[in-house]
Amino acid sequence: MMINTEWYRIFLHASETLNMTKAAQRLNMTQPSVSYAIKQLEDALGVKLFDRLSKGIVLTEEGHALYDQVRQVFDKLDYAERYMKQLGQLNEGRLRIGANGAIIRDYIVPLLDIFRSQYPNIRVQVSQQKTGQILEQLQQGLLDLGYVYLPVKDAEIQVVDTFVSPYGVVAGKPFAALAEAPLSAAQLAELPLLMLSQGSATRSYIEAWFQSQGVEAAADFELNSLDMLAEFAERGYGAAILPRAFVASKIDEGALLELSMEVPLPDRHVGVAVRKHSSLSLAAEAFLNIQSSRSL
InterPro entries from the entry (predicted)? Predict the structure, then answer.
């Protein structure tokens, strides 16, 4: 049964004023229009909602029961309207981002510092994951933005922005002599190599670089985080291929040395991925605007 929702709003005001004329004044309507709407609602529901008295109206038992339900519905609608206004003003909402550790630390955190200062009431959720996991969660609607290494071959994913992440070869002080002249890929492969575990996009990127020069490289240390790779490299256990931004401070301090290569590692391109054909949340749009302004 379809009933004009405006009748319920009129009923609500009539119930609270217990006077058709006062309800009409509240609603900027005529008193006959209010009376007609109440009569239409009573006929549609098949119950009497008001007893008409000489000095006004009173709710019937059925009218009281309906009022309790309608009041709750309109309260929820009022709350929804207020909440939407808060979302529109970015005083409510959430932002869900997925990325790997290096991108989070070196790229996303500085942006989040700005975002949080501008929108302190937005709840931010960041998850550290591999590219494949990020793409899956984007498809499932569990993330708003995913920072992934390119290329991405997924018909359900759209890349809305990109930036470059240069990589370099670093080692600790025991390998200082190797920093005097560029190394070939074959020479680097003879050193103890520190790599991420098999299956990561970064491991595949490094192996592809070696293979492009006819070299098969094996890892002496397989670790699960860039922090561990940097730690072991600093302690002199071998050479690691890491994002330059990730180890820039260690290189500046002299704790790590960057080894020059005859064939430099290609820059890696990072894309900001979203689920195709899905509207971005206002919080995600605001974060991307900050990112764009920082890249100008």
Answer: LysR_HTH_N (IPR000847), LysR_subst-bd (IPR005119), WH-like_DNA-bd_sf (IPR036388), WH_DNA-bd_sf (IPR036390)
Q: Cα dist. 252→43, 231, 244, 256 in Å?
A: 82, 15, 11, 8
Q: What gap in Å lies between CA 182 and CA 261, rounded to an integer?
A: 5
Contacts of 1 (CB under 8 A, 6+ apart): 44
Beta-bridged to residue 124, according to DSSP, are 95
What's at 240, amino acid-wise? A
Instruction: Name the token pair of 100.
Output: 């790997």
- Enumerate the H helices of 104-235 as residue ranges: 109-118, 131-139, 185-189, 201-211, 226-234
How confident is the model over 258-276, as pLDDT tens digits?
Answer: 999 999 999 999 999 999 9
Bridge pairing between strands 56-59 and 50-53: antiparallel
Query: Are the C-beta atoms of residues 171 and 233 closer than 8 Å to each other?
Result: yes
Burial profile 221-239: b = 16 or more Cβ within 10 angstroms, e = fewer: bebeebeebbbbbbeebbb
CA-wise closest residue to 170 among 116, 238, 110, 111: 238
The span from the CA of 72 to the CA of 78, in Å, is: 10
Point out which residues pair with 162 in neighbouring strands: 271
What lies within 8 Å, CB to CB, of 156 at 6+ separation is 138, 139, 275, 276
CA 68: distance to chain centroid? 39
Q: Helices 20-27 and 5-17, interaxial angle, to 10°?
A: 120
Query: pLDDT per residue over 65-85, tens digit each?
Result: 999 999 999 999 888 888 877
Mean pLDDT of the chain: 92
What is the separation, in whole angstroms, between the first and last Cα of the chain? 57
Q: What is the DSSP letter of 93?
A: -
Residues recorded for the chain: 296
